[in-house]
Structure formats: structure tokens, C-alpha cells
Structure prediction request, 208 residues.
Amino acid sequence: MRSIRDCAPVAFALGLFLLALAADPWVGALQYSRPLVVQGQWWRLLTGGFVHLGALHAAVNASAAGLLLALARRFALGCELVRNVLLGAVLVNVLLFVFSRDVGFAAGLSGALHAAAVALGLRLLFSDHSEFDAAGRRMARGIGGLLLALIGLKLYAEHGWRTPIALERWWAFPVVVAAHLAGAAAGVLLAAWPWCGPRRRRNGVNRP
Prediction:
């Protein structure tokens, strides 16, 4: 419970930030737009993940980010998760631009959250976790495996490789499920980066 309380201010601040960007003119100016990126508005690759199509869209993603942050902080991986969300937001749009020509427009942080969740799951599952006792290591690997399994089932149910854009009754706009698939790929790339390897020791102390 303490990790959840510690993350509440961060999640609240993120929610306010995303809500502030969930209205015009921010959405039109900053969302990912393949035609406009082709015309030279390259900054949309950097900003598209942070604008949302309404308050509910922003609130759901902010809540998911808060839950992931609470989980990551239990294993001293909070800073790494925040970094992966930020980098994932850019990587997802780059992957959409390169590989998903059918996706003309996208907005929202869900792809980046998939990236951060996959990177976190891989980190928990495959790191040696030498800073924990045996029970802590088993818990980390169990949670990592469960997290990856849940994401895998979600991606399979969405069939983003076959239907990049889906209509879902609980959203008032088409959902770019290809962004979730791109996020999972970005998460693998982030987990493979050297900073996500086992934490180095300096003077016998683990460094986060």
C-alpha cells in the first residue's frame, strides 16, 4: 500500500498534464498524423503519445500509468518505468510511421504504456534480482511472467496485426490497436537496451 500512496502524487500530476492536453488546439497540433509527418511536421512523432481524445481517454491512461508505477516501485524500478514510458511514446509513433501505413492518425499514451509494461515484465522475469532474497526473486519473476502473459493475451485478442484500427463500443472513437502491438515491440527493444540489464554494484551498493 505504501508504494501506491507514494505514487499517487505522480499519477495525479500526470493525470492533470494529460487532461490539459486533451482539448483543442493541443490535439490537432500535436497528435500523430502520418500525412503531416510526411510533410515535415516531425515533432508529431515526439508529441503524439501525450495528447488524448477527451478527458476519459486521458484519465484511463493516467490511471494505468499510476498502477504500473506502483508495481515498478515495489522493485525499485520506478525511474526506469518513467523513462520507458517517455521513450516508448516516441518509439511507438516511429514504428507506426515505418510499419503501419494504414494508420493515418493516432493519439494517446496506451502504446507507450504497453511498451513500459512489456519492458517491466521482461526486467522482472529475466534479471537476477541479487538484491532480493529467494522469496523476493520468486515474486519478481512470477509477477513478470504474469504481466507478460496478460499483455500477450490482450494483444492476441485485439489482432492488431490483422485489424490495425478497431471500433469498440466503450470508446467514442476508433482505437488504434496497432499502437498496442507497436508498444509491445518497443518494450522488447527497451528491455534489450543496456540500462535495463542487472544493476551495477559500486562499493558494494546496488545502484538503481
User: Anything to note?
Assistant: DSSP finds nine helices and six strands in the chain. The beta strands are 32-33, 105-106, 165-166, 175-176, 201-202, 205-206. Residues 197-208 have pLDDT under 50 and may be disordered.
